[in-house]
Amino acid sequence: MRATRFFISTLKEAPADAEIISHKLMMRAGLIKRLGSGIYNYMPMGLRVIRKVEAIVREEMNRAGAIEMMMPVVQPAELWQETGRWQKYGAELLRVKDRHGRDFIIQPTSEEVITDVARSDIKSYRQLPINFYHIQTKFRDERRPRFGLMRGREFTMKDAYSFDRDVASMQVSYKIMFDAYVRIFQRFGLQFRAVAADNGAIGGTGSHEFHVIADTGEDDLVYCPTSDYAANMEAAVALPTTTERVAPTQQLTKVSTPGTVKCEQVSELLGISLDKNVKSLVFAVDGTEDGSVKKQLWLLLLRADHQLNEIKMHKVAGLANARMATEEEIVEWFGCVPGYLGPIGTKLPINIVADHTVAMMTDFVCGANEADYHLTGVNWERDLPLPMVADIRNVQAGDPSPDGKGVLAIQRGIEVGHVFQLGTSYSEAMKATFLDENGKPQFLQMGCYGIGVTRILGAAIEQNFDEKGIVWPAALAPFSVVLCPMSYDRSEQVKTETDNLYVALQAAGVDVILDDRGERPGAMFADWELIGVPHRIVIGERGLKEGKLEYQGRRETAATAVSVDEMVAFIQEKLAA
Amino acid sequence: MRATRFFISTLKEAPADAEIISHKLMMRAGLIKRLGSGIYNYMPMGLRVIRKVEAIVREEMNRAGAIEMMMPVVQPAELWQETGRWQKYGAELLRVKDRHGRDFIIQPTSEEVITDVARSDIKSYRQLPINFYHIQTKFRDERRPRFGLMRGREFTMKDAYSFDRDVASMQVSYKIMFDAYVRIFQRFGLQFRAVAADNGAIGGTGSHEFHVIADTGEDDLVYCPTSDYAANMEAAVALPTTTERVAPTQQLTKVSTPGTVKCEQVSELLGISLDKNVKSLVFAVDGTEDGSVKKQLWLLLLRADHQLNEIKMHKVAGLANARMATEEEIVEWFGCVPGYLGPIGTKLPINIVADHTVAMMTDFVCGANEADYHLTGVNWERDLPLPMVADIRNVQAGDPSPDGKGVLAIQRGIEVGHVFQLGTSYSEAMKATFLDENGKPQFLQMGCYGIGVTRILGAAIEQNFDEKGIVWPAALAPFSVVLCPMSYDRSEQVKTETDNLYVALQAAGVDVILDDRGERPGAMFADWELIGVPHRIVIGERGLKEGKLEYQGRRETAATAVSVDEMVAFIQEKLAA
């Protein structure tokens, strides 16, 4: 490609609404162009990267036996009403009426449509397993679109949907997709981690997220450096920090702790380390209107230096619909203002849940349910019975790994893929059955598998950039090599050598761009460093006098002189590395 | 590809709503699957054809120097308001509100978005000419979607948009696209015709339509078999059928013609051939409410065997907003009921337009503006002055070609491409300018160029089918070759030979599918004839005894025995043909 036949549009400054580095660099490098809030044109330079992502995804999906098709972007509401997602999906679902007043949605995902295809076209177990995928435009009406392609409204996803005869077979299909995802992210050349995940609203029995590792990531990934345990923060099991509760050594004592509504203040006042304190969080579960179920208050106990995980909390039996209690409710049930609450001596009976670590504590401190007082030397099964124990906290670095093979570490990641075992949640809702060997109808066992194609660009940049711009991994770069001739339009020799090299590289199958725009060297170099092309070759009269060209890799700080004759082989070696 | 790893879903009967052959065959062959009115899933078999269309379009666009990008499917209404199309586009424009109540549309076409890109990113004449294209999902909310992908609501289009510094340069860009289109349709292997077209609502100065020739086409294409003149019915110039008016031989005579409200009846009653009769059509142009412009009635005169072309009629000065006159208006202005109207002796003054052919007539017949009476022997410039003369009729086969190089013929076509010279209609509306050599802002000269990617499938089938199913041209077939083994799962020899041939054909780069489904021969052959794969090879024990396989081309009625060793070369020769 010659630059004058392509479209290059770089900016010195990123627009003010670009908050994160990938958004800034994508705008500055001219990969995308904003059309509206969370809506972008994919400019020619950006589309080249998207196509490289798509090509790798497509190859690996095909290799894994998935079959490509396309589904409508505009989908009838009826299907979404069958599964109840027309109601449940909320404001993120872009709804539209056609000229006849019929309801449609712009696809945010396509479980309903593929299940509709399956229920009419899959008739027999002999057609199973089968896996359909599509790479298409999707739309989610985010409340606050930001971060460019990382949290846009319109984006490109690859979604695959597997159909199987039973759970065991579905899990085989799931494993095939999991392995394909590993190959895909390896081929991207990105550092990534697959973590066990919570299934969330989509339902089903098992799932993993694929994250690109980046300090700027929004998600905490929990992993064990000495084993293969990995999970996201919701799914990571928080074991107690000790496996045994030691014997009490202190008496239960009520102490005056005026003005200490925070555990840190109590800890400091009493000279007791923070991890000997227990914090009390209060949630309420409302009763039914007919009074058959009464309102309950729940006291959750966590070690003072631990964090509640709300998703885990909601999974505790009885707490699915829990909400933060109001101060009024707290005073009514505890007989005390917040800041001095604890499990002993509440005014009304309270449900108590202790985190696993709290259940192992001895001689701990908690509120006395009396303003300006705490209790010290509190001990389970002596001063109060052990309540319900559950995992309700975030893992912390240094916690024991659930597989017993080390301690956990935490790193930040950007979610770019997600694989789910859906089971029969959609096939039951939509009555998608097949006939088994005995001619009996059975619900199809489903899995679904997404990759955020356009999100990959943002994640790749968050992981690979420097002060000059993007540093694309080889597989994703819009061009592999850029030729930067000095005085292309004024030096016959430079022009001839550049054109010869350009033709030779193209003949060798190298994805090369020749910058024939006639820009000054500084501006030209800055553009290509910003755009992030991995390999740069400078062709100048001075070097040519000695038969040399200048090569510099995007991550390198100095150029290497390479003879004209050897340059093609030199580049091929670099690309093969 | 092995059939068991792919998805084949054929139907014996087409659904009742499929009216035309391409729709029926696409449904039966499992290329598409209906999701809603005018909305289809592109099933794996259909998607393969779409990808082949896209690949050819993309290669030729790139070769012609156009640059690929992608535009959002969901576009802000503001841009459409700038050009006025938010109002003008009507009910076909699918409008949607986001969660904040802001207006958006689902792209039916993208002139606004690309002009928005151009006005911000094209700053200098040095960036021109430039041509952007995209291949994407579009949506038009057709009042009555039908004919499958031929008139669906959601479809795939390739649209290109060129930007130039002046009209001459824009016409060069237009010619480059025109030539690329010719190459594209040649590569598709379809019979097609490019015809001059009316620009219609999109505005601008010149355009051509590309039609696939098919008896079932909706459009009439006018062309001259002995020259390169070609136009659609709206743009085809209807010359007078004779170049000279001969001298009168008859007297003007009022004759009694009771009960003859149609020209055919008058012609029969009087024993005068139909082409000596003139028919009178009456249109009204309403006045303004303030009375500054008064209502006018217009009498249009056509030879009785000719047809009015309303688009041409509306181009006549003064008739842009003409509508059919009511019977009441006719009686008021002509003093006579319809059926006996004519240009002589109207009650009130009428504007008259004669078609070019009428202006050349001598001794003709027309209504006498008196019920049950006609005039015969009517002659221009003797009995009445020659009125305004204009081309207001459809061309007929046998009419003289406007280039003077023969007579015109008419054939049916399906519009699949359209190229337009837009000029500055969009750039002026959206203030898209560039700085010329003198640093002065100038409006960008635009062109736009569409191909209906998914529509090509329907058009190709309308041109290429037989009683067994689709007959794909080589370039568009979902697979080039199908291997049909007899008893693949029971005969070791058949399995081995089939697998060997499959591997050998794949190694030779042939797009081959192996039907390993274990279907009976009759069902297997019927499926592949319906799907329309061009080349079939049958592998059976009987033939293998003599070292032979059976080859049959899709258009052939009998098979040819080809030796096992020669089959790959034989197929390569067929594919190269």
TrEMBL record, chains A, B:
Instruction: List the InterPro entries hit by this protein, alphabetically.
Output: aa-tRNA-synt_IIb, aa-tRNA-synth_II, aa-tRNA-synth_II/BPL/LPL, Anticodon-bd, Anticodon-bd_dom_sf, Pro-tRNA-ligase_IIa, Pro-tRNA-synth_IIa_bac-type, Pro-tRNA-Synthase_IIa_type1
List, alphabetically, the SUPFAM superfamilies matched.
Answer: Class II aaRS ABD-related, Class II aaRS and biotin synthetases, YbaK/ProRS associated domain
Q: Pfam families attached here?
A: HGTP_anticodon, tRNA-synt_2b, tRNA_edit
Name the keywords, alphabetized. Aminoacyl-tRNA synthetase, ATP-binding, Cytoplasm, Ligase, Nucleotide-binding, Protein biosynthesis
Q: Its domain of life?
A: Bacteria
Q: What class of enzyme is it?
A: ligase
What's a Gene Ontology MF term here? proline-tRNA ligase activity
What EC number(s) does this enzyme carry? 6.1.1.15
Ranges for domain Aminoacyl-transfer RNA synthetases class-II family profile come to 33-473
Catalytic activity from the UniProt record: tRNA(Pro) + L-proline + ATP = L-prolyl-tRNA(Pro) + AMP + diphosphate
| One GO term (biological process) | prolyl-tRNA aminoacylation
Q: Where in the cell is it found?
A: Cytoplasm
Q: Name one GO cellular component term.
A: cytosol
- State the similarity comment: Belongs to the class-II aminoacyl-tRNA synthetase family. ProS type 1 subfamily.
Q: What does this protein do?
A: Catalyzes the attachment of proline to tRNA(Pro) in a two-step reaction: proline is first activated by ATP to form Pro-AMP and then transferred to the acceptor end of tRNA(Pro). As ProRS can inadvertently accommodate and process non-cognate amino acids such as alanine and cysteine, to avoid such errors it has two additional distinct editing activities against alanine. One activity is designated as 'pretransfer' editing and involves the tRNA(Pro)-independent hydrolysis of activated Ala-AMP.
Share the domain note from the entry: Consists of three domains: the N-terminal catalytic domain, the editing domain and the C-terminal anticodon-binding domain.
Subunit architecture: Homodimer.
Protein name (record): Proline--tRNA ligase
The species is Solimicrobium silvestre
- Gene responsible for this protein: proS
